[in-house]
Here is the input.
Amino acid sequence: MSDRLHTLSGYFHEYQKSVAQPEEFWARIADSFHWKKRWSKVLQWNFEEPDVRWFVDGKLNITENIFEKNLYTLGDRPAIIWEPNESHEEVRTLTYRELFVEVCRFANALLSKGIGKGDRVIIYMPMVPEAAIAMLACARIGAIHSVVFAGFSSSSLADRIQDCQAKAILTADGNYRGSKKITVKGIVDEALEKVSVETVIVYRRTGQETFMQSGRDFWWNEVLEGQSEFHKAAEMDSEDLLFILYTSGSTGKPKGVVHTTGGYMVYTKYSFENVFQYCPGDVYWCTADIGWITGHSYIVYGPLLAGATTLMFEGIPTYPHPGRFWEVVEKHQVNVFYTAPTAIRALQAFGTEPIEKYNLSSLKVLGSVGEPINEEAWHWYHTHIGKGKCPIVDTWWQTETGGIMISPLAGITPTKPAYATLPLPGIQLSIVDADGKELHGNSVEGNLCINFPWPSMIRTTYGDHDRCKQTYFSTYKNKYFTGDGVKRDHDGYYRILGRVDDVINVSGHRLGTAEVENAINEHPKVIESAVVGYPHEVKGQGIYAYVICDMSNRSEENLIQEIKETVSKIIGPIAKPDKIQLVPGLPKTRSGKIMRRILRKIAEGSLDAMGDISTLLDPEVVEKIKAGRK
Ligand code: 7RM
Here is the structure.
C-alpha cells in the first residue's frame, strides 16, 4: 500500500506535509479509492456553523470500495471469520466473494420491502455476520443505518427509532451471551408498543419462540428467497449520510452522531492500515461490539476497505472460562488483537494460568481503546499477552471523530505506558486552558481540542444541528472540543486524562450523568438524584448515585434494588449504578446547582479535602453524606 507509513522519520515528514498542505495530503490518499466521479474540491469548511464538506461533489459507493475494487485480487480471501459464543459451535468464514453475494442479496431484499436511499434503518442485532451484512447492504442501497447496541433496553431503542424516524428494524430472535440466552425480538416488540416502523426483518439465531406480527415482521431467510446475487451499487454523494450512531453526552438525551460517506471511507481505511500496520493475510480481531463506533470503524468498514480478514466474536471474555480470548487467538492464529482496558483488567484478575494453556505466538500487534489504560494493565498486557514483543497501540478517539486520532503506529512510534503518544498525520491537536487560550510547547495540561477538519469528523447531530454546534464548536472558538482532559509531556507525547464534562466511562461505555439521573428519577419514590463517576478497579469508572427518596413504608435495601432495576429497564444493564446512597439532601449552591465536585470527592473516598463549601445552602449536608458513604 503506497499510502502506508513505515518509519518514524516518514511519520514526521508526512505529519508536516499534512499540516502544511492538508488538501494535497488528503487528495493523495483519497485517490487510491474508486470514485464514480472524482471530487471538485477536497475540502470546504467553517467551524462556526459548523459546515464541513470533504471531497465535494465526489460520487461513490463505499461498498464498491470493499468489493468491486478488490474482488479480482481478494475474492477468495476470508473477509469475516465468525467465532460463535460456544467454542464447539461451527465457525463461519465468509470470503470477500461470498460476503459480496450476501450483501447484494440482502440489499435486494431491503429494496423489495420498499427500503431505499435516505431511509433510516435501525440495526439491533447480536454479533453475527448478518449484522455486518445488514450495515453493508444499507450502504449498498444508500439507506442510513443506525446500529443500536443489543444491550440497550426497549425504551432506549424506542427513543432512537423515534429520533431518526426509522422505517425498518433489522434484528434477531435472540442473542447468546455467555451462559445466557436473551430475547432480542421481544425487546423490539416492547419498543414498538411506543413507536412504529413499517418493517421488521428477523434473523433466526437462537430458534426461540418468537412473536411475528403479520404484515410487519418477516424472517430474514424468507426475504432473501429468490433475491439476485448482484446489486448495482447506488451512487452516493460524498457528503450523503452513511450512518447515525447515538452516543451519550452531558445532557439527558443521547445524540445521533452523523457520519458521511466519502470522508468516513477515506479515514477509516487510512487509520486502520497505518495504526495496526496490517499486512495482507493477517488475521485481525477487534473485540468491540458493532453497536459502538469501534465496531463500525474497526470491525466492519476500516478492515474490509483494507481487504483485511476481520474476526467477529459473538461471546464474552469469561465464558465458558477466562481463557476464552486466548483460545480464540490460538484457534484462528490472530495476528492483531484490539480490545478495551476493562477487558484486560477483568482478565488480569484471573492470573496468568488461563493464558498459559494457549499458544499466543501468532500475535504481532496489540491495541487498546475506549478509556485510559492504567500503567499496570498496560504492563500486564505487554508482558503476558504480547510476551514483551508486541507493540501496544493505545488508540484515542471518539464516536464523533469516526476514527483513531492519537495513537502510536505499531512498531514505528516508540510507546510509553498509558500514553496514546502522537496524532496521526492530518490531525491537528491543541491544548487549551479554561479561558480557551492555546497552550503551546511541551509539558502542558488542559482540554483537548482539534483545530482543523479531518475527513471522518462528525457532520451534525441528527435532526438538531444547533446541538452539534453548542456541544462541540462553541466552547472554544474555531476549535472542535473533545470533552477530554489531556497532558502533553516533555517529549510531546499525549496522555489522555479522562472526561472533563458530565460524561462517565463505564467499561468503555459512555454514559451521561444526567441520563442516568433521569432514569433513576423515574422510580416513583425518588425525589431527586445526583450521579457521579468514581474510580473502579475493573470498569475504569463506576457509577455512584446519591438519591433522595420518600422512605415511607419502604426498606432502604428494597428501594436500592428497585432503583437499580429501574435504570436497567430504562437505559440497559450497563447503566446500573454500582453504588446507591440514600441521602437526606444534596450539596447545592444558593442558586440551586449541585456541587458535583464534592460528590465526586466523597465517592472516591477523599473525605478530608472538600475545598470551599461556604457557598453551599446547607453545608451540614456534606457531613451527613460523608457519614453514610457506601
Ligand atoms: C472509541 C470510543 C469516547 C471517549 C473519549 C475518551 C475515552 C477512548 C481512549 C479514551 C483514553 C484512550 N468512542 N477514550 N479511547 N481515553 N485513552 N485510548 O471509545 O465515543 O465511545 O468514547 O472514550 O474519554 O472521549 S466513544
Summary: The pocket of 5'-O-(acetylsulfamoyl)adenosine is lined by residues 247, 292-294, 368-372, 394-399, 420, 482-484, 496, 498-499, 505, 508, 510 (CB under 6 Å). The longest strand covers residues 526-536.
